[in-house]
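forwarding from the other thread:

> can someone predict this with biotinyl-5-AMP?

sure thing
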Amino acid sequence: MNSGIITRVMKSADRVLELLYDRRGGFVAADELCARGAIAPGRLAKTIESLQQRGQAIEFSPAQGYRLAMPCRLDAHLVEHGLGTRRVGRNVICFDEVGSTNDVAFDSARQAGADGLVVLAESQRAGRGRLGRKWVSPPGKNVLMSVVLLDPQTAGETPAGREGRIPSPLLPHEAVTIAAGLAAAEGIEAACGLAGELKWPNDVLIDGAKVCGVLVEVHRLAKGGVCTVVGMGINANALPPAEDVDRPAVSLAERLGQAVDRIEVARAVLRRLDVWVANIAQGRIDELHDAWMARCGMVNHRVSVSYRGATHTGRVLDVSPLEGLILCRDDGTYVHLKARGATVVG
Ligand code: BT5
């Protein structure tokens, strides 16, 4: 088959998948799929077969047509379709298995048009958390995704700085970390109606148990510029084995009592991340601060934070998108603790 025909066949398959997905587990008549998917009736069975080869479970009833079993398998086209974002999710790729989606994201950052790329995987061989810890997720059940954000110089865009000054760094690690956690909590709520609480610096909790973790990493690129990768692991439908976690974990499905559509969750989170990344890039961080604080129950609580070899114990005063956690230590002194290198230990 020449490449033009392959592209057309893939586009038809994507369109059919969209139509089936949008029916949310209901049947779509073969005539409708052909008409709206611009497919000759004789080609529909082959198109359905190609989607089945992509791992989608599609059922056929002679009387009713075709239906996609929900929740369906992750699919890059479905995540992209109807996303409506400006930067995050301009392109989406989806893998069966990778080492870590963050590594694939960094590798992809060298390619043209990588800004906003979303990398999803059904499973990770070496999913990582912060500070050398692991992220463990049963295959095919959860959301494991990473987003590439290139600074404007790298992305070939106009830097968003006043008087042509390029703010440095353009996307502060601190702000992106809290924006990612907030986006995850907001997206989860939009997709499933579950209100998550934020635990600085990078956890989303439901009733005190961890449902999502965020890992923001920054690399300088060989060609110049900086690449920030926002990695997120969301327990949509399954928990990690108990021996792999040192604190309680929870999944969305467990809370809801039913399986969750990962595509809906991923899209909702990406939409919110797009909004917050735009705010940060424009230097508008007050809104981020207020929205974050509204979901954070830590203020005025006494916590102990391990930070670069020392432990700081005191009362949480605030979380600043640029300065990190602001703590009034038990001895009355104040300290600002940055997300990178900090872990709340008690
Ligand atoms: C995090 O680290 O919470 C950041 C996790 C980021 C994972 C995503 S998945 C996609 C992308 N690609 C990657 O390789 N990583 C990112 P941290 O705060 O260090 O928490 C890690 C700790 O959480 C572990 O030591 C475990 O105790 C616990 N943990 C591991 N897997 C978990 C899970 N699925 N659910 C809840 N807790 C988990």
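The chain has ten helices and 14 strands. thats all i got for now
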